[in-house]
Design goal:
This protein has 142 residues and is of the alpha+beta class. It has 2 helices and 10 strands. It has helices at 2-7, 9-35, and strands at residues 42-44, 50-52, 57-60, 63-67, 71-72, 77-80, 91-94, 104-105, 111-120, 127-140. The chain is rod-shaped and about 105 Å long.
Length: 142
């Protein structure tokens, strides 16, 4: 009662409002945390369903070629969006040292070459990666 006499009725109302607001904010943040934050490439709507944005599709196969055969790097893989848009011009191919390959693949030395194909979608901004192996056979093309 002493508090009520000193500070008045308005202070009790303000304290009650602050208590209700803090309880509501704690409830809100607890629900936010339990709902979770979606991973990269996904979005959330009010229906609580997580919709994943489509990543580009890469089509590339392991190959076996003869020593000295000329292989255009651009012909090793193809890529496209889910809607069918061709992304082949956006493909980057890297060797095991991280160097980007351009024009022709060097097949002068026989061996097994691991290549990584990377394409980034200009629409969704998502990236796809695929690894392939090119086996350069010791047989010489005649």
């Amino acid at each position: 009662m002493a508090f009520f006499k000193v500070y008045g009725r308005e202070s009790i109302v303000i304290l009650a409002v602050l208590l209700v607001l803090s309880a509501m904010s704690l409830l809100f943040f607890r629900e936010w945390k339990s709902f979770g934050i979606p991973e990269d490439g996904k979005s959330v709507g009010f229906s609580e369903k997580i919709a994943e944005k489509p990543r580009p599709v890469i089509m590339a196969l392991n190959q076996r070629v003869m020593q000295g055969e000329k292989i255009a790097v651009g012909r090793l893989a193809a890529a496209w969006e889910e809607n069918g848009q061709d992304l082949s011009k956006d493909i980057h191919i890297y060797d095991t040292d991280g160097r980007e390959l351009k024009r022709l693949l060097n097949t002068k030395v026989p061996g097994k070459y691991e290549l990584e194909i990377v394409v980034k979608s200009p629409v969704t901004g998502l990236e796809s990666r695929k690894k392939i192996t090119v086996l350069v056979d010791g047989r010489v093309e005649t």
